[in-house]
Amino acid sequence: MGITAASSIPTHTVTSTSGVGWEGKDPEFDVLFTQFNVDYDYFETYQMELTQGRAFRYFMFLAIFISCLGLFGLASFVAEQRTLEIGIRKVLGASVPGIFVMLLKDFVKWVLLASAISWPLAYFVMDRWLQNFAYRTDVALCVFLVSGILGLAVAVATVSYQSLRALVANPADSLRYE
User: Fold this and answer.
1) Closest among 174, 166, 121 to 147, alpha carbons compared
2) Those residues with Cβ within 8 angstroms of residue 162's Cβ, 6 or more apart along the chain or in another chain
């Protein structure tokens, strides 16, 4: 006769009331006194958020990979189209960092524009999503600044390879074929 607790869960969680002598004496006993594991209940409550988090993480990496491939292809195309211009600028004495900044400026402008458009939408969606939780928190603006800086860094790293490859090429070769 007594109350027992399972060893795999905290000791204050009741798992059995066998032998106490209340069974069958009160028909509402089974309804009023039910046992459950708090950790399992918490896990069940947030199972959908955990599953969505995993799916969002996979799709985020896929989207970043596809966007980097697109940026790489676009940078390759622009470098190929501007090969003659780069060659003429180098022959006329333009510095390599100056040409590099000129090539990156177009891409940076579009990344900053995309960030400025996406930040309000992301803030609205995240604020609505966070309202569904029991303990609410506000969306910090530093999250958006860090994401913008990381997006800019990924874009610059992706474009830099093709730009530097076009810059270190011999200008005579680019001028010869035009």
Assistant:
1) 121
2) 72, 75, 76, 78, 79
Question: Structure tokens of 56?
Answer: 């969002």
**In which residue are the tokens 């905290």 written?**
10
User: How far is residue 80's CA from residue 167's CA, in Å, rounded to a whole number?
Assistant: 11
Q: How many domains would you assign to the chain?
A: 2
Do 169 and 99 fall within a single domain?
yes
The whole-angstrom separation of Cα 86 and Cα 104 is 13
Please state, for a pLDDT cut of 90, what percent of the chain lies above it.
22
Position 160 in a domain: yes
Contacts 24+ apart (CB under 8 A), 62-69: 64/154, 68/154, 68/158
* pTM of the full structure: 0.65
Please compute the mean of the pLDDT values over residues 44-57 and round it to a whole number: 87
Task: Please tell me whether residue 89 adopts helix, strand or coil conformation.
Answer: helix
